[in-house]
Amino acid sequence: MLNKQKGNMYGFVDATWNTVKGKCPHDCSYCYMMRFGKQAELHFDNSELKTDLYKYGKNQFIFVGSSCDMWAFDCPSFYRSPLKGSWAYKTIMHCQKFPENKYLLQSKNPQWILNWIGYLRKNFTIATTIETNRAYPQMG
Questions:
Q1: What pTM value is reported for the model?
Q2: Is the CB of residue 86 less than 8 Å from the CB of residue 79?
Q3: Model pLDDT for residues 123-135, shown as the tens digit of each residue
């Protein structure tokens, strides 16, 4: 389901869309999903692939995966890989059916998103967040 943006994290985002649902492996203390209580097991919601990403018109900026990081290290590698059938593949291919929108992909592990550069068009933006209370060995 495409949801109108209500939060204030990114003022430029018009809507959010989540194909990967359930408990995010990062378990960030500030995550807005905490207010919804205990989350289900991490899973892919195939019904989201029927979502009309032009529901609110064209030229929308859609935050894909606002409720869970599909590139988290704890997600099985197949799910985040550039292989047909993976969660990330199905999600990105659906976005490409709606090329007049812009898409925000965000992860604490943007190096996994970089595996997708060949699939991402100019209408995709890659972002990352870090927390000051965690160590990130990959950042040195």
A1: 0.81
A2: yes
A3: 999 888 776 666 6
How does 109-135 read in b/e, with b if 16+ C-beta sit within 10 Å?
A: beebbeebeeebeebbeeeeeeeeeee
DSSP state for residue 45 in the 8-state scheme: -
Bridge partners of residue 127, in order along the sequence: 106
Residue 60 CA to its chain's centroid (Å): 16
Give the CA distances from residue 129 to residues 45, 82, 132, in Å, rounded to whole numbers and listed in that order: 24, 22, 10
Q: How far apart are CA 23 and CA 119, in angstroms?
A: 27
Q: Find, among 33, 10, 12, the residue nearest to 23 by Cα.
A: 33
Distance of CA 45 to the CA centre of its chain: 13
Q: Which amino acid is at 58?
A: K
pLDDT at 46 over 90: yes
| Half-sphere CA count of 36, side-chain side, radius 13 A | 10
